[in-house]
């Protein structure tokens, strides 16, 4: 009887530690995400900088390779800049590379 109680306690302890660790991690990232979306441009710039590698592949392949980061950056550029709405994907990819 005592062995089964000790066994259950040994199993439950690591699980509770793991759960609290997960809660702390997800809570921290949620608060970080809310501060980035509060109107600052640092989150916007990060999307564009993350898209540079995809943009390089897009330009080098003459538009054949389209990455997810590039797609997100193209959407963001077109939402923020009226002139970007009429620009081609290639022109915007080159603009991202120039950053």
Automatic annotation (TrEMBL):
Lineage: Bacteria, Pseudomonadati, Pseudomonadota, Gammaproteobacteria, Lysobacterales
Stretch list, region Disordered: 23-45
Pfam name, any one: DUF2388
NCBIfam families referenced in this protein's UniProt entry, alphabetically: conserverd hypothetical protein
Organism: Stenotrophomonas terrae
Biased composition (Low complexity): 23-42
Signal peptide: 1-19
Keywords: Signal
InterPro entries hit by this protein: CHP02448
The protein's name in its UniProt record: DUF2388 domain-containing protein
């Amino acid at each position: 009887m005592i062995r089964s109680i000790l066994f259950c306690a040994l199993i439950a302890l690591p699980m509770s530690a793991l759960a609290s660790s997960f809660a702390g991690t997800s809570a921290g990232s949620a608060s970080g995400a809310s501060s980035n979306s509060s109107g600052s441009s640092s989150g916007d710039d990060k999307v564009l900088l993350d898209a540079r590698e995809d943009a390089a592949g897009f330009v080098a392949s003459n538009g054949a390779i389209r990455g997810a980061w590039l797609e997100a950056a193209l959407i963001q550029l077109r939402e923020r800049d009226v002139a970007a709405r009429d620009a081609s994907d290639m022109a915007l990819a080159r603009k991202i590379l120039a950053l």
